Predict the structure.
Amino acid sequence: MKRVLLLCLVNLLFAQGLFESAQQTSTDAYELSGDIRSSIYFDGESDSLYSKFINSQASLKIKAKKGNIGFAYADLRFTSFNYFDEHFMNIDLREAYVDISLGAFNTRLGKQILPWGRADVYKSTDNITPQDMRYMFIDPDDMRMGNFLLNSSLQIGSSFNIQGIWIPIYSPNLLPISVFDMPENVQYRDIIMPDRAFENGGGAAKIDLRTSEYDVTFSYLNAYSLQPGFASEMHILSPTQITFDFFQQAWRQQVFGFDAAVAYNAWSIRCEGSYMLPEDENTASYIPNPEVQWTLGVDRSWKALSVLFEYNWKFVLDYNGLAEPLDPRLMMDYQLALYNRLFFRQTKEFTHNIFARIAVNLFHETFEVEIPFSYNLNTEEYLIAAHMHLDLADALRLSLGVNIYHGDDNTLFDFLKPLYNGCYCELKVSF
């Protein structure tokens, strides 16, 4: 009888241990995923093809959950690529952050990517984390880079959310400086960054109102702009010898923004607008003028076919034209002013842009073709692209595509087309 009781007690304790182990497993979860991809980018020159960009990359994504309040995520990328006959190897911790969720309150601390806005292309409120614009990325999302943020939000009821962000360290966009053809007396210097002081940090806040009929968001940002300006410093070595230092310089801005989305029958309608106010307006050529812009977008799907259309309008306040100086010592400032206006898209007082994308998804979503098209109504610059994605097997994808940038002399697309024009092929395995 004692043996039977002892056996029952052991079985009970063993079963309780299994239950506690299963309970712990249900609240503590670990997940490893990622992808391995290889791609090659071609371009044509003098009726012959050359490989301008060759890339191999392995990406590891780790998710961890601790109890009901803790969550962590990391994205680690190992990249080896050849770009215009230069070889690079990078190890990039793209994101690494920890979430703490206490009911309606959630806070996230660490390196993270945080896009804002509802527009697909012309995102005027997307000013939190930077992008890498130096290369041609097959997936536009790969352009995004992480930055260290304290990101907290409070959910009030089912339809009201308040979000606050602190940006302690400035991290700018990486720009393709190689597109500038500078004379021999001009040398490039590193970007001038703000001192790492508390007052040079950035802050942003957003209020979301979501109902069953519409979503509306109001946002405010006070931080250094992700897009630095181009500046120079002149050195007079002798009456006949003048040199210049060419560098990027950070500047601070305030951005008041809003965006909204509503569904009408089968159509999805979105809009986004902003008012950008530089902190030191009109004090230096590398600081842009204040501007107002808004974007309206509509999209719809018909079974395998989907279409998207966006219109963007920008108004530059206090706009004035540029006149070429007679003094040759001022030519550098004049040239940099042109470059700044190109990259800030402030070459005209009023700017009108349109974007359209047609996509077809066939054979049980294993074959997709999309054709984006962008056009500037003022400068007549345009982009035509065609992309095809074919799932050869589960988690094995073949991508083919071509990008054509076109612009008249001294337009932005004229500078960018040597970098971005071409066709590509990519193989990607996800796990």
In short: The helical segments are 2-27, 331-343, 412-420.
